[in-house]
Amino acid sequence: MPERAGDNMGSYEEFTETQIKILERFVTNTKGNVFVLRNLPEVIKGALFSRYSRSSLGLRSLLLKEFVLGEETAFDAIVGQDGFVEKEDPENQVIAIKKAQNFYDRILDGYGDDSIGELGGAHLAIENISMIGAKIIEDSRIGGSPLEKSTRYIYFDQKVNGEYLYYREPILMTSAYKETYLKICDMLFDTYSKLIPKVTEMMEKKFPKDADSSKAAYVAALRARVLDCLRGLLPAGTLTNMGVYGNGRFWEQLIHRLHCHPLAELQDVGKGTYDELSKVIPSFVRRAECHHHHHESYSKFCDALLAELQNVTDHQQVVSAETKPGVKLISHDPDGPYKVAGVLLYRFNHYSLETLQNHCRNLSHEELAKIFDAASTMREHRRHKSPRALEHAQFTFEIVADFGIYRDLHRHRMLTQERQLLTCDYGFTLPSDLLDTPMEKIYRDAMSRAKEEHAKMAIELAEEAQYIVPMAYNVRYYFHVNLRALQWLCELRSQAAGHPNYRFVAQEMARQVIEAVPAFEAFFKFVDYDGHEFGRLGQEERKIAKQTKPEYTETD
């Protein structure tokens, strides 16, 4: 007797016992109206969902009819007879996906627009990429989720075959600056390595372990403090590892950009990314292939755009002012409070948005404050997300701060940002822990030598010279961000566990917004303005406590 797929479904699908047995391999629920796909490659899931948008069939029926039993899909060869992808021969699976690619290309092109590329994705590991290269990949904001090796928990002074792990940029390696580049990078790593035990000893004396503190938590917090102090010595060419999950649309756009990037490293990563993703989601990235007409058109557009902007820039006479490290609120919308207040009221009224926002313009400060208090009072934790109404207030900041800070804050992808080339022109951050210690001169000398050689290299090779810039040197960039995203950034990055340098930036952004728009102070209630001498210890203690806590039982 056929079974129905669910009691509340729009179409009462019925499956035989044989069909249910097949479906059980690929869906988590054969009866209910909520279920998850499993044991299917991304190319099949993407094509299945894209076809789903123009079919009267339920997804399970569509899977059976057009994919499991379809002649063009190479379903058994891709998925395997038992339905478990990981048990199949990867090489045969790649061949099968290629063989059936025309089918999947036709489905993906015929049943949707570019958004169809968001229905499948892949996890990609990129190893031995420079820190500046990792940032360029992470510039792609939407559709991808990157994770990068941490300078706080991992020592970066390891050697492989007697060499420190930094990128040997091919243009630099064939230029007159080769020996200089190698010498300065080795010097920076040597300094980093030699200072680790000295700074560790100093920190142990400055912050002795409390008798009540966990040893494991203390050691972890101490290491984080030491590595936070010394990470500024690492050049931007330092090699790191990253993992990225992205949907097909994300990967296509990223590969386009990498192919067109002026740095050879990124071009190589683009080629490698295309080659590897073509093995698992070929239909999603095929338009990013170097000779595909879509990419050729995109490449011409990029070249022409850069040429035009460079031409305009060359004819501009700009009066330069002294650049000082810090945070500056460049602009904000004076009508922001009225826009936010009007949107907060919108859901609970039947008036137009324009009417409500005009109404809020005529409210007193006290009446506006009541609206904002109503939207913020019930927040008991920074993870309680504020209403989207806050996205109607916009702020633009310019920040001059060290590259290490930029790397941390750059991860907030729900904002618009742009940075200038890395240079040694804007000074560097000297860790406060090194002030008035014998290590201060060692640190300063390393920075001075790097600056001197960078200045020579940058005259001819401005892009490539970035690899030699130590992370302690300041970079100039801007953030254009809405109030809701800024609230999240400031409350998160000001916490005691954070690096003291980016904590200052987060605190300062919040201060300047509150000074410019006092009515918005209610939305920064969890910004931590305090200084913390050994702030990481509390978080490490909590982590150790969780790890050692017995599992819950039903009697708990």
Helical proportion, percent range: 40-55%
Q: How would you describe the oligomerization state of the chains in this entry?
A: single chain
The total of beta strands comes to 11
SS field, number of helical segments: 22
Mean pLDDT over all positions: 87
How far is the N terminus from the C terminus?
44 Å
Total domain modules: 3
Question: What is the global morphology?
Answer: globular
Q: CATH class of the largest domain, anyone?
A: Alpha Beta
Named at the architecture level, the CATH assignment of the largest domain is 2-Layer Sandwich
Based on secondary structure, the structural category is alpha+beta
> Beta fraction of the residues?
5-15%
Across the major sheet, the strand order is 8-9-11-10
Gyration radius, rounded:
28 Å
* Stretches with pLDDT under 50, minimum 5 residues: 6-11, 83-87, 550-556
Could you name the CATH topology of the largest domain? Gyrase A, domain 2
Largest sheet: 4 strands, antiparallel
Give your account of this protein's structure.
- There is one protein chain.
- The chain has three domains: 3-114, no CATH class; 123-314, Gyrase A, domain 2 (2-Layer Sandwich); 326-429 and 472-540, 2-Layer Sandwich (Gyrase A, domain 2), CATH 3.30.1360.170.
- It contains 22 helices and eleven strands.
- The chain has helices at 17-23, 42-52, 59-68, 75-79, 90-99, 101-110, 131-138, 170-173, 178-206, 215-230, 248-259, 264-277, 282-285, 293-314, 336-346, 353-361, 365-376, 403-409, 438-460, 483-493, 500-516, 536-548, and strands spanning 3-4, 14-15, 121-130, 144-148, 159-160, 163-164, 239-247, 326-332, 394-402, 416-419, 474-482.
- The protein has a four-stranded antiparallel beta sheet. A three-stranded antiparallel beta sheet has the order 3-7-4. A two-stranded antiparallel sheet has the order 1-2.
- Helix 10 (215-230) runs antiparallel to helix 22, helix 15 (336-346) packs across helix 16 and helix 15 packs across helix 17 (365-376).
